[in-house]
Inverse folding.
């Protein structure tokens, strides 16, 4: 017979283990609800899943089921990037190039400190490049060309180039 204390402990451990995945589901689904997807590429992004690792265009780490890659280049999407994307703490590659994404780059993208490549080129992004992108010390590839961005490249982002981290 299982003691009540053991049962409570087991429930607690399972809850803690699934928190990161639920945050990732919430973040990606919040983004999906702000996108127009005429080609149905996000049709299986179901918020009732425990984690998004079985969703199309999402890749996860096999050890901990955390999202490491989102590949939605040339997917025919329009809409905005949402601040919740900054919760994808293990994201390494984010590719949303060649779409019709508009609006600003959320400052919360600067929370993605595991990011190696950020490809937002050939969209309709506007506003300035957030200085928070300077927090992305693992970033090697940053492609923002062919958007409607204004202003100068922030000193914090230029520092990534000077340090030798950002190569493209």
């Amino acid at each position: 017979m299982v003691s009540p204390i053991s049962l409570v402990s087991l429930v607690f451990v399972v809850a803690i283990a699934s928190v990161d995945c639920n945050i990732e589901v919430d973040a990606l689904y919040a983004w999906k609800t702000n996108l127009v997807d005429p080609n149905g590429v996000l049709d299986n992004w179901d918020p009732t899943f425990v984690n998004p690792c079985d969703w199309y265009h999402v890749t996860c780490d096999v050890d901990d089921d955390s999202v490491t890659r989102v590949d939605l280049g040339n997917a025919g999407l329009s809409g905005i990037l949402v601040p919740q994307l900054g919760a994808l703490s293990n994201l390494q590659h984010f590719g949303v190039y060649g779409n019709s994404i508009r609006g600003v780059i959320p400052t919360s993208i600067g929370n993605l400190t595991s990011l190696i490549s950020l490809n937002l080129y050939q969209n309709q992004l506007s506003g300035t490049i957030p200085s928070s992108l300077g927090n992305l010390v693992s970033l090697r590839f940053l492609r923002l060309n062919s958007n409607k961005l204004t202003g100068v490249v922030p000193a914090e982002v230029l520092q990534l180039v000077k340090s030798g981290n950002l190569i493209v």
